[in-house]
Amino acid sequence: MKAILVDDEKLALRDLERQLNKTNQIEIIGSYQTSRAALDAAFDEEPDVVFLDIDMPELSGIEVAEQLQNRLPFINIVFVTAYEEFAVKAFELNAIDYILKPVMQDRLSRTLGRLINLTAAPAAKTNDSQGTIRCFQYLQIDIDQPKSIQWRTTKAQELFAYLIHRRFHPVRKDVLIELLWPDTDAQKGYTQLYTAIYQIRKTLRDLGLDARILSSDKGYRIELNGMKLDTDEWESTLQAAVPITPDTLAYHLDLLDQYRGDYLIDYDYLWAEGERERLRILWYQHALEVGHLLIDQGRLAEAIILYNRIQYLFPHVEEIYFILMKLYDQCMEWTAVEKQFISLNKMIHEEFETEPQPHISTWYANWKVSKTSDSTI
């Protein structure tokens, strides 16, 4: 394996070089005391691994690692640090391994064993179809089969989701820090951000995906590189859909089913609310059109199923209760009619402190009279 060593302390650099040479497992192609020189060399030489001190002047090891990953996504980073182990935990996500100074030969051997195993393992298969990122209900990546990613931290997951959310625009680093780590001081916030970016890149690489996190001096943007996004695919299909007719009902029912749940609804992401509501309204308008045709076609059982789903997603729309009351009446499900009116009253009182609209109350009162008359007869 080709390696570059980076440490601003000359003695520490020589000691690490000496110990690595003793192993006969590493070809050292450069040793550098400045971050800029190390970056230039790494971009030119593309080493397999960089042994990188964290506490560096000008650019920290975390910042260097971030730039390396941006240009060389398959590079391995090993941090070498004088920090105590408890302080290094923040960086553990950010590297293949870390070694505490002074470097001990047995600890270095374990790191090399880990590197050898990683480089010997076959790379994750990249599919002809790059797969789909799913954001309806929860975050998931489909490659050969649906896969929920086990993120090391919830912040890395949210950062990935947010970059997907803002996929058409670069997002400034200070904005990301304010969003994800608002109570953290600036220096620690940047460290947390670089750590999360590194983890996302490593996760995408391990999955064999071409999606990349691109960085500039001030921010980040995700490039999907052929991967699909279920929300984009669904909306595009909806906009291009054929008119809703008896012959195309099955197609439109399937399109409704592709909306498996509200946008990232499983997570408490306030920034997702606007997009969540926008997609909900698109689904709602489409569902109403499909529901009306189901009723016109006399497919009442299917209409009841659909309107119950609409009611679940939009529990504060009075007219949905009313439609269900009339559908249950046509199906002679009298108890269900009663339950719908009771649920409507409860919702109206709790949410709006008022009464159901007069036309609904009048219909229900007349219905009750007719059912009482029928039972008397």
From TrEMBL:
Q: Which PROSITE patterns match?
A: RESPONSE_REGULATORY
Q: Where is the Response regulatory domain?
A: 2-116
- In this chain, where does the modification 4-aspartylphosphate occur? D53
InterPro entries assigned:
AfsR-DnrI-RedD_regulator (IPR051677), BTAD (IPR005158), CheY-like_superfamily (IPR011006), OmpR/PhoB-type_DNA-bd (IPR001867), Sig_transdc_resp-reg_C-effctor (IPR016032), Sig_transdc_resp-reg_receiver (IPR001789), TPR-like_helical_dom_sf (IPR011990), WH-like_DNA-bd_sf (IPR036388)
Task: Answer whether the UniProt record assigns the keyword Acyltransferase to this protein.
Answer: no
Q: Which domain of life is it from?
A: Bacteria
The alphabetical list of record keywords is: DNA-binding, Phosphoprotein, Transcription, Transcription regulation, Two-component regulatory system
Instruction: Work out whether the entry's keyword set contains Aminoacyl-tRNA synthetase.
Output: no
Family note: Belongs to the AfsR/DnrI/RedD regulatory family.
Protein name as catalogued:
Response regulator
Can you name the source organism?
Answer: Paenibacillus radicis (ex Xue et al. 2023)
Q: What is the lineage of its organism?
A: Bacteria, Bacillati, Bacillota, Bacilli, Bacillales
